[in-house]
Design goal:
This protein is an alpha+beta fold and 154 residues long. The chain folds into two domains: 66 residues; 87 residues, no CATH class. The protein contains three helices and five strands; from the N terminus they run αβββαββα. Strand 4 and strand 5 form a beta hairpin. Helix 1 packs antiparallel against helix 3. The radius of gyration is 20 Å and the shape is globular.
Length: 154
Amino acid sequence: MNLPLLAGLAFALFGSYLLFHSIANYRHAIASQGWPRVAGRLVEVQLWKKRLIDGEMKDAEHVKVVFSYQVNGRDYTGRSPTFYTLVYPETVEFAERYPVGSEVQVYYNPVNPADAVLVPGLKKDKPYSELILAIICLGVGIAVAVFGWLGVIG
């Protein structure tokens, strides 16, 4: 059994999934910049997963968001604050900027109004970070698999 080959293939498969997902998010983020917007309301904003902040363990690593909005008289519920991953301290900043019950602008896909986001576009300071991470993951998986198959490792 060639463990490096199997591990490399598994990692390459995971990298392929990440790449597919990040390309879809990238396309949605670009498209969302031109989407129409409607008023919505934040139903839930919850920080979760502990992180050490100022010597204390606090929920701050991830943020869960639920918002409601209406398009053409039909009610919708959204769960995506952005088309990129929010990481600490962005999660805390988001939760402070958008408290539960507040009115928000919801940007929705005119072709599929159930596809909506609160912050349209790409991440300002790192627009390609998720694509780069996926490509690295795929490349490492392929390299490990090839080296394992050739017997260089393992």
